[in-house]
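ok so heres the complex, two chains, lmk if somethin looks off
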Amino acid sequence: MTPRRRAAMSALALAVALAIALPLASVLVAPHAVFIDDRARTAQVYLVNTSSAPEEVEIGLSYGYPATDSAGNIFVRLVETPEPGDRSAAAWLRVFPRRITLQAGERQVVRVLAQPPAGLADGEYWSRMIVTSRAVAQNAAEADSMIAVGVSMELRTIISVTYRKGRLETAARLTDFRATIEGDSIIAWVGMARDGNAAFLGTLRLALRDANERAHAEWDTPIAVYEPWLRRIAVPLDGTPAGAYTFHLRVDTERTDITPASLILPAPVIERSLGVEISP
Amino acid sequence: MRTLLRTFPHLRPLAAVLVVWGVLAPAITAQGRQLNPAGRQDIAFGTLFPGVPTTISSTDALNAGQFEVRGQRNSEVRIDFVLPASLATGSFTLPLLFTAGDGSFSTTGSLAGATSFDPRVPLVARLSSNGRLYLFLGGTVLPGSQQASGSYSGTVTINAAYTGN
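and the predicted structre for the whole thing:
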């Protein structure tokens, strides 16, 4: 075989169909926040395969909570080996089943059972449920001297699991609040810590207001304070004219995403304001 | 209802589904909303030739990988991609490269107004007012000049979590 013919054959051999129709993964997980009462000691999570193909699903537990990195980005910190003082429930929560195959459109109830140690003090104990789903592997048809290539997808959905015992108290504490104008955004640094024996769940709201209390830029998001964090938040100014403004922060316990509302523990509202000057 | 089902017996399966959903739906919404990351389209690199890299842009509607996150409207989510450095078949590998502009996201599903991001670093974004976030992923495969034939495969892992609980 001549080098030219060999090259041509080689090119043919590498005629790759990367667009193999791999099944696309999709598993709905609900609810996104699970609360277990110390009297019931059980909860349910629903999984629904919303794709058109079977899915393999694995369910794991790990201690974890929202945290921030040095750049102020938020992430869910998963801790494989909690420290003795950590409020981890991961070691004594059990999920059943841990591994299942869901057919297209099929629903499955996953039960979470708590077996807390004797003498557990009042308060909240935390874990994260990690639901990993992937399409059931299918053998790709492979022609002689061809290459078939596929990039499959694995989805991991991480939700909170909270065990609650006895009397619960929480409060958020503002540890830092400052702001600077950078380009077309106002950059806020917001530091929060928690008091009490339970996580703070609430909403953080930021608003840039003029002397007439008219809001020019607003931003809000649900927050959770388990351990101290310091977030960097960029709020677009959207053409706000130059001038003197008040940058207002409010942290309250209003949440529309967790029901019933009684699951949200009461806590004092925090409000702070800063003077901000936007240059022409 | 019974009269209706006697008259139209073929509606019985539908009625059963509605009854099951009626039981499940309140339970599903209790304590919180759902989170549902979903694949919409795999990355399609098309035909490869030895020694010739092939790049798919994240703005390539036909070939970019497409994912959708469905959840509570206006909520903030954190998305982490775990990207393979190569695809493999047996002991043979095919390098796969992701760079800073290989991700795009949009809340409308349209690539027209999508925002570029680096899929190698985490993305914190908000779901739309109807609870959607669309992600697009490109990349580059780098076949060697003597790339062996075979069925190469790899896995992209996507981690999705609400930041607020």
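quick notes: Chain B touches chain A through 64 residues (CB under 8 Å). thats all i got rn
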